[in-house]
Backbone:
């Protein structure tokens, strides 16, 4: 009896990597408006700066998705992981221009990482396997979004923002090195053009959110 195909190891790997990587960002991200308000006096400007990452993602996603097949998923993911560690360094400088640059880099990082990672992990021709793989792939980032604020709140209350920025940068660098050196990545199964567009659309919706 055919029991079907299991979830590809690449999907599990990317989910675990994004859990590890996203934890540092999630530990800080929800508290950033508090930090930004200390250095930008206008509440309106704080809201404007906070809206930069989804705006940048919205503007870049179509262009970046077209780069996936040209540059390769691994190039985009690695570029996104590296870019995602940089904002923590800019925020630590506590300068208004650096804070704006950090928020813009967050949007660039998210667009590169999600487009590349989603394409790398989920180009699967089997409908049932793809549905289950979607859930496994999102499990890592979603767990990070749950655990990150709890961990970040504890560190913030006891030690302030600078240790959080160091943790964000450290996990970002380690995540990038892990992705570069790991041999656990499998070559994704090619999908039909219609499935690729369907997957890209699903990814685009989630990445903007």
Residues:
């Amino acid at each position: 009896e055919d029991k079907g195909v299991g979830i590809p190891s690449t999907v599990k790997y990317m989910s675990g990597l994004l859990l590890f990587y996203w934890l540092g960002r999630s530990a800080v991200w929800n508290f950033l408006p508090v930090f930004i308000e200390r250095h930008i006096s206008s509440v309106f400007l704080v809201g404007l700066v906070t809206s930069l990452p989804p705006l940048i993602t919205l503007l870049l996603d179509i262009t970046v998705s077209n780069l996936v097949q040209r540059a390769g998923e691994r190039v985009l993911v690695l570029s996104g992981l590296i870019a995602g560690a940089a904002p923590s360094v800019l925020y630590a400088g506590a300068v208004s221009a650096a804070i704006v640059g950090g928020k813009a880099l967050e949007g660039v990082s998210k667009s590169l990482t999600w487009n590349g990672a989603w394409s790398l992990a989920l180009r699967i021709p089997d409908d049932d396997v793809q549905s289950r793989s979607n859930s496994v792939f999102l499990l890592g980032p979603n767990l990070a979004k749950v655990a990150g604020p709890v961990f970040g709140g504890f560190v913030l209350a006891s030690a302030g923002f600078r240790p959080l920025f160091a943790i964000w940068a450290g996990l970002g660098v380690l995540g990038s090195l892990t992705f570069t050196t790991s041999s656990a990545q499998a070559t994704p199964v090619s999908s039909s053009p219609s499935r690729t567009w369907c997957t890209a659309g699903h990814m685009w919706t989630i990445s903007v959110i």
Summary: Residues 183-209 have pLDDT under 50 and may be disordered.
